[in-house]
Amino acid sequence: MMLLTLHIVAISAVIGITANFAYALGKKDGLRIARNEQDGNQQKELFAKKNS
């Protein structure tokens, strides 16, 4: 019984660590994409002002 409990705890820890790591990578990519989009919008605004 103790071995089963140990396995369940270990598997849960691995799943938790993996999920946390994947979430952090996704969040970093999301912030990067948002920053790139914001920079792109600012460049479009500057281009529009120059051509007006």
Brief summary of the model shown:
This protein has 52 residues and is an all-alpha fold. The protein has one helix and no strands.
Q: Would you mind describing this structure in some detail?
A:
The protein has one helix at 2-51. With 52 residues, it is an all-alpha fold. It is rod-shaped.
Number of helices: 1
SS-based structural class?
Answer: mainly alpha
Quaternary structure annotation: single chain
Q: Beta fraction of the residues?
A: under 5%
- Unreliable stretches (pLDDT < 50, length at least 5) are none
Give a short account of the largest sheet: none
Taking the alpha carbons of the first and last residues, their distance comes to 76 Å
Helix content: over 70%
Can you lay out the helices and strands and say which pair or pack?
Blueprint (H helix, E strand, L loop, with lengths): L1 H50 L1
Key structural traits:
52 residues; mainly alpha; 96% helix; 0% strand; rod-shaped
